[in-house]
Amino acid sequence: MNLLKSSPQSTRKCKVAVIGAGASGIATAKCLVEDGHEPTVFESSDQVGGVWVFENTSGRAFSTVHFQHSKYVSVFSDYPMSMESSEFPHHTEVLQYLNDYVDHFDIRKHIKFNTAVDKVCRKDDYWEVTVRIGDGQSTFKFDAVAVCSGIYNDARLPNFPGEEKFQGMIMHSKDYKEPSIFAGKNVLIVGNGPSGVDIAVTASYSSNKAIWSYRKNRWLLPRYCERIPFDFIVTRLNKHIPFRHQILSLVHIKKFYPIMLDHQACGVKPNVGPEKSGPVFNEDALNRIRLGAIKTKPNIAHFEENKVVFEDGSSELVDIVVYATGYQVNIPFMNEYLGEDHQKNLNLYKMVFPPELPNFGFIGFVYGNVIFPTSELQARWFSKVISGEVDLPSKAAMEEQIQAHRKHQEEGWLDSAYRSLRVSAFDYMDDIAKEINALPKVWENWTILKEIFAGPMMATQFRLNGPHKWEGATSWIKKVPKLVRK
C-alpha cells in the first residue's frame, strides 16, 4: 500500500491537459484543482455530460435511459444527488447533476468547449497537445495528461452474411433516441447489455413486434429487492467473508430463488452466476418475455431481403434492426504510443497508468455500473502521483501486475467485447483507495461501524479518511439507510 508523503518538498504543481468533459473529465479536473494543479479540459462538444447528453451527436443517451444502480452508490463521493431526484435517476437528472457538480466546484472556467484534441505528443520533459477549434489548430504544453474520453467511442458493429441485401433499416443504439420510430414495425434488437435490454422492453410497447437476439443468456434483475435498491445487498461485510458467493447464495436464497425460477420459466436462465457475466437491471424485461411481448432468439445466422434467419433455423420478418452491440475504444490522438491493439487491450497499471508514459493517465477506462465514483478515485490517485505524493512501482512491477490482472479477467469473466476493461467495481475501488490512504478506518469511525460494514458500498466511505475529507461524510452515511427504508 502506498502512503501519502508528508513532506511539502515532495509535492509539485502541474499544468494538466484533461481530455473530455464527461463525468470522468469533470471529476478529474475537480481533483486536480483540490491538489493545486492547473487543469485545462478540452471538450469537443458545446456542453459537459459526455454520454449523458441527449439530442447531441456526442451523447449516447436515449429517452428511456436510467442509472443501472441507485443514486446512493452511483455518484461522486462528496456531492450527493438532490433528495428530489429519483432513486434510479433518468438521464435528464444525471445530466443536471453533472452540471450542478461543475458549477458547485467552479470547474466550468477550466473547460474549453468545441475544442477537439488532434494529437498528443511526448517531448523531452513535457507533453504537447494539439487541438482543433473550428478550422484552426493550436498547440499547448503540459506537464501531465489525463485522457477522460471514455470507452464509448466507436460503435461496435457486427457483420452478418447477407446484410447488404436487407431492405429494412439497420442502426446502432448510439443513433436511437425515441421509440416513435418503432410504431407499426417489426423490430429486432441485437445484444443484451443495458442498452439492449432497455430498447427491447421499450420496443415491446411501441412496435408491432419486438424480437430480441443475443448469443448468451444474462441475468435480468429488478432494481429493487423487497422495496430496497438491489445494490444495497452488496456490503463491505459480505464482500470480505470467505466463499462469499456461496454464502450469499444461501443467505439471499429467499430473495433470489423466485428470480431464478422466472429466468427458467422464460427460457433465459444463464449457465453462470451474475458474478461472472454481470447482471443487467430492468424491472420489466422478464415480464415482457413471459407475456410474449418480447420474442427471444439466438444469434443471427444471415440476412435476407425482408427477414432475418437465426442460428436455430427460425426466421422473422423484420423492418428495423437495432445493434445494441456496444462500443470499442478509439483514441486516435494516441495511436503513436498505444498501437492498433489498444482497441482490445489497453496496457494500463491498475487500469490507469501506462508504464511507458510518464505523467500520463487514463481515467474512466473501466467497464462497470458505478463509473462516477470509480473514475473519481482514479482521478484522486492520478493527481497524487503527478504531485509526487504517491509513487508508482517500477515499470517491471507494473507490467507484472498488468499481466496478472489480465489473467484474472480471462478467468473471472465470460468472453465479451468489454472483458479487458472489466473490474469488480467495489473490490477495485477499495484497491485504488488504498493507494491514497482513503479506506475507511474503523477506529476513527466507530460511531458508524454498522453503516460502514453492513450498509451500501457508497463512495462517501472514501471521504472519511485520507486527503480532502468531506465533513458531511459521516452524517450522510448515517442518513442513507434510513431514507431508503422509509
Automatic annotation (TrEMBL):
Give the Pfam families listed for this entry: FMO-like (PF00743)
- Is Plastid among the key words of this record? no
Q: Which UniProt keywords apply?
A: Endoplasmic reticulum, FAD, Flavoprotein, Membrane, Monooxygenase, NADP, Oxidoreductase, Transmembrane, Transmembrane helix
One molecular function GO term is: NADP binding
Localization, UniProt: Endoplasmic reticulum membrane
Record's keyword annotation contains Endoplasmic reticulum: yes
Bilayer topology annotation = Single-pass membrane protein
Entries under InterPro entries matching the protein: FAD/NAD-bd_sf, Flavin_mOase, Flavin_mOase-like, FMO-like
Q: Which cofactor does it need?
A: FAD
Q: Which family does it belong to?
A: Belongs to the FAD-binding monooxygenase family. Belongs to the FMO family.
> What name does UniProt use for this protein?
NocE
